[in-house]
Amino acid sequence: MQGDDAMTKQATSPIGTPGVPWGPAEVAAWRAGQTRKRSFEAEVLGAIQALGERWDLVQYGRLDYPPDTYPLLAIKSRNWRDELPCALVTGGVHGYETSGVHGALRFVGEHAASYEGRVNLMVVPCVSPWAYERIHRWNAQAIDPNRSFRQDSPVQESAALMRLVEPLRDRVLVHIDLHETTDSDESEFRPALAARDGVAFVPGNIPDGFYLVGDTQDPQPAFQRAVIAAVAKVTHIAPADAEGQIIGSPVVAPGVINYPLRQLGLCASITNATYKTTTEVYPDSPRATAEQCNEAQSAAVRAAIDFALAAKA
């Protein structure tokens, strides 16, 4: 029965032929249907530029999707000291995941100054500004940047971030990548992925609450627990489903699952940081507000850095 429903959902895709992967014509048709729904310049770029009085702003690339271009900006500690460990914060790898962007900006605006002299900070609030404006998971080529952090990546967003981070790859102590899991994952993005790849859409479940994705190869369970404990003071933690899983992966601790980050080409794999995690906030929960989601992301960043610095001491 589930297979029948899956094929029905696939067949309703307005682009392409069910069961046939998209080619360039289908990608072009999809891109033509994407419209700007909000302003990166007004909502994000302006906020980043306002931080320039206290922080160094580094333009590490320019996203070019004619007729649109976007500066790619990182926020960096002004008093950078080579002897200090580095903390990397990334947000907006998926442009539609709003609290990842604004949670990163909140952390810098309200809390980052307290780490001066203890850690070098590099914060990239919005990796995918084209997708931010269109409230989408993919870039303009219908590719997921968060499966594209690989050597010689064809994805502008991913390749530019990897070039920025490469000189720090072995010096980053902690990297926290800020994401959301939304109802639109199930209603829009997963069906679109199935249509793009010419496969059946298999329905899943959206967990109600915050969770983390650690690294299967080096899970650092105490670190993940510390971040969960901090976020639990702000918003609720996602429970395991009836199979003891979250989004199809076994729950290894309350609110924690693990992925093979590097094998999947995920953003959290781009350094050799000892401590790394991906946050997943659930903004569509009736038990959470946008304010809580932004605060949860900021709290997660602070807890991650605090744990890493304490462990190193």
Automatic annotation (TrEMBL):
UniProt GO molecular function: hydrolase activity, acting on ester bonds; metallocarboxypeptidase activity; zinc ion binding
Region Disordered: start-end pairs: 1-23
Domain of life of the source: Bacteria
InterPro entries: AstE_AspA_cat (IPR055438), Peptidase_M14 (IPR000834)
Coiled coil feature spans: none
UniProt keywords, alphabetically: Hydrolase, Metal-binding, Zinc
Keyword Kinase: no
Keyword flag Metal-binding: yes
Cofactor(s) the record lists: Zn(2+)
Any GO BP: proteolysis
Domain Peptidase M14: 36-313
Pfam families xref list: AstE_AspA_cat
Family: Belongs to the peptidase M14 family.
Name under which the protein is recorded: Succinylglutamate desuccinylase / Aspartoacylase family protein
